[in-house]
Amino acid sequence: MIEAVGLTKRYGATVAVEDLSFTIAPGQVTGFLGPNGAGKSTTMRLILGLDAQDAGLVTVSGRPYAAYRRPLFQAGALLEAKAFHGGRSAYNHLLCLALSNGISRARVDTVLDLVGLAGVARRRAGGFSLGMSQRLGIAAALLGDPPVLMLDEPVNGLDPEGVAWIRTLLKSLAAEGRTVLLSSHLMSEMAVTADRLIIIGRGRLIIQATMEDFLAGGSGSYIRVRSPQAVALAALLTARGATIARQDGDALTVTGTTTEAIGELAVAGGLTLAELSARRATLEERYMELTKDSADYRAGGGQFARAGK
Amino acid sequence: MHATTPASSPAGGLLPLFADVVRSEFCKLRSVRSAFWALLAAVAFNVVTAALLGILLPGHLSARQQVTIDSTRLSLGGLHLSQVAIGLLGVLTVSSEYSTGMIRATLAAVPQRRLMLTAKTLVLTAVTLVTGIAACFAAYLIFQAFLPAGDAMRTTLATPGVLRAVTGAGLYLAVLGLLGFGLAAIIRSSAGAVAVLLGALFVPTLLAELLPKSWQDTIGPYLPLNAGESVYTVQHQARALEPWAGLGVFCLYAAVALAAGFILISRRDA
User: Fold this and answer.
1) Is the residue at B1 inside a domain?
2) Which pick of A193, A212, A229, B236 has the fewest CB atoms within 10 Å?
3) B105 vs A: CB within 8 A
4) pLDDT grade, residue B7 (50/70/90)?
5) Closest residue, chain B, to A169 (C-alpha)
6) What's the fold here for domain A2-74+146-216?
7) A121 contacts in chain B (CB < 8 Å)
8) What is the mean pLDDT of residues B98-110?
9) What's the burial of B163, exposed, middle or buried (CB within 10 Å: 0-12/13-18/19+)?
10) Which residues of A touch B122 (CB under 8 A)?
């Protein structure tokens, strides 16, 4: 469980995170989304106490992260892939971290095995590909077998097999009752991995909702109906509180009802249906719709498009 | 899936925690090659310089020079190079954490930042103290071993001032490492910290030459390099600080840098 209340962080004149409150519950994968510069990485650093907030409070399992004596048992984090000394072997990198929390050498071998790096454990980590570095970072996060995991862009640089591996791993960790917070720019990946979403823009919370509720809202989800008696059907639907978003010949675009309700209505009214289909917005569509006003660095918007987090 | 090897359970108490963090910091030091090379270089500079001086000097010095020269200090001539290696090690011990991004993994594992920095200081001090003192004794003994029998430069560790000078030189190296460590904790960049360290060592002594003579006499002995070298000088110069007082002043410089580093690490974002 991660809880933030009124979290605020400024870097000089720049407000990175402003009055951010959220709850990340155990037992599910929570997706953390937002445009570049929205404050996702800052939020994760605040959760770990790496940066100090200017206001507000954030706790991991009820206490500020930095208050724990051996915090690797409380939360594991992958913040950036290459956060290790390139001259050190993967094994020694993990061993140095493990020793600081009194974690055994056997556990180091276990996590190396788990992420598939056992074969290259004695090689200098500086020579690792981005994908191998990500795996090493995930191994470090798993060292203390913690109930809370935070991963910032873990699928960056992974091949399709690696991406599928992360998805399976995170889902199984959540299924074990752990709290999993995942940030990613890959919408398709997020759509199949996350159960719940937190979206921020310009350091502020835009929405926190289950994936289900999130996709159902917005203009991307609607029902398409075709009927020779479209005008009569439209009148019936409107009378029942549904909204006709568009009428184009015999085709209707309807929101605010279900396909079941429309079918029953047509039968009751003796109307013929030529087509009845529900269209679900994709995560990407919904996301773009929600964040179009809060993207800091959008190309062509008068500001320079800028890479980075 | 994690059942195969359960992670050991957390234990309470600050002392066992500190012991674990020291173990972790020692693991970091021994698992990178740069530390090994810096320590090896420090020993090699001392030993090779001493051997060359022991072989070449007796033939080049007049009998009078041999009597008046500070042969102990001469045998420690390798310090000019080995101090750079130890200083670099002190700097890298901290700055490599920042340059690689490792610091965020380190502080996520040990959020008690000053405890972590204390452990790092302890490990660096232990390693540089052992290496420094060993390197200085090796230099002294090798220089003496190469001198011809009956040479006027021959001394023993029992000769007044010699044991203090050789041990002091080792201490000087360790304190120099801590000065570099402290500067790196403030500056957090390898290049910046090395530049400031070398600048602090050599520039004041050079600039002092430009000052009026009376100023030189007043300020000169307290400059870092001058204060530090008085501890490994046997033939004491009139204006220099007493050996241990000199080392004390040198320690003070390191202490100020360390104190600033310790204050800053908890106040800044990682």
Assistant:
1) no
2) A212
3) yes
4) very low
5) B1
6) Rossmann fold (3.40.50)
7) none
8) 96
9) middle
10) none
Q: Residue A84: its chain B contacts at CB < 8 A?
A: 100-102, 105
- Give residue A213's pLDDT: 85
Residue A80 has pLDDT above 70, yes or no: yes
Decide if B7 is inside a domain: no
Cβ-Cβ pairs closer than 8 A, A with B, add up to 127
A100 with B11: Cβ contact below 8 A:
no
What is the Cα–Cα distance from A138 to A152, expressed in whole angstroms? Answer: 10
Number of domains in chain B: 1
CA A28 distance to own-chain centroid: 11
> What is the ipTM, given to two decimal places?
0.90
Q: Which of A115-124, A247-256, B178-187 has the lowest mean pLDDT?
A: A247-256
**pLDDT at residue A296, as a whole number:** 57
Cβ proximity of A161 and A130 under 8 Å: no
Instruction: Break chain A into its structural domains and give their ranges.
Output: 2-74+146-216, 222-279
Strand partners of residue A277? A224
Residue B149 lies inside a defined structural domain of this protein: yes
Sequence-distant (≥ 6) Cβ neighbours of residue B231 within 8 angstroms: B164, B165, B168, B169, B171, B172, B243, B244, B246, B247, B250
* Residues 145-204 (A) with a CB less than 8 A from some CB of B: 145, 172, 176
Predicted local distance difference test score (pLDDT) of residue A249: 87
What's the domain range around B210? Answer: 14-267
Residue B197 has pLDDT above 80, yes or no: yes
Q: How far is B184 from chain A (nearest CA, A)?
A: 17
pTM: 0.88
Backbone torsion region of residue A12, taken as left when φ is above 0, otherwise alpha when ψ lies between -120 and 50, otherwise beta: left
Second CATH level (architecture) for the domain A222-279: 2-Layer Sandwich (3.30)
Residues B27, A140: C-beta atoms closer than 8 Å: no
Phi first, then psi, for residue A55 (nearest 5°) are -155, 160
Residues of A in contact with B270 (CB under 8 A): 45, 50-51
Q: Which residue of chain B comes nearest to A72, CA vs CA?
A: B109
Q: What is the pLDDT of residues B30-72, one digit of tens each?
A: 999 999 999 999 999 999 999 999 999 888 888 888 888 899 9
Within a domain: residue B9? no
Residue that has been written with the tokens 């984090």 in this structure? A77
Task: Round the average pLDDT of chain A to a whole number and report it.
Answer: 90
**Got the DSSP string for chain A?**
-EEEEEEEEEETTEEEEEEEEEEE-TTSEEEEE--TTSSHHHHHHHHTTSS--SEEEEEETTB-GGG-SSGGGTEEEE--TT-S-TTSBHHHHHHHHHHHTT--HHHHHHHHHHTT-GGGTTSBGGG--HHHHHHHHHHHHHTT--SEEEEESTTTT--HHHHHHHHHHHHHHHHTT-EEEEE-S-HHHHHHH-SEEEEEETTEEEEEEEHHHHHHSSTT-EEEEE-TTHHHHHHHHHHTT-EEEEEETTEEEEESS-HHHHHHHHHHHT---SEEEEEPPPHHHHHHHHHTTT-SS-TTSSSPP----
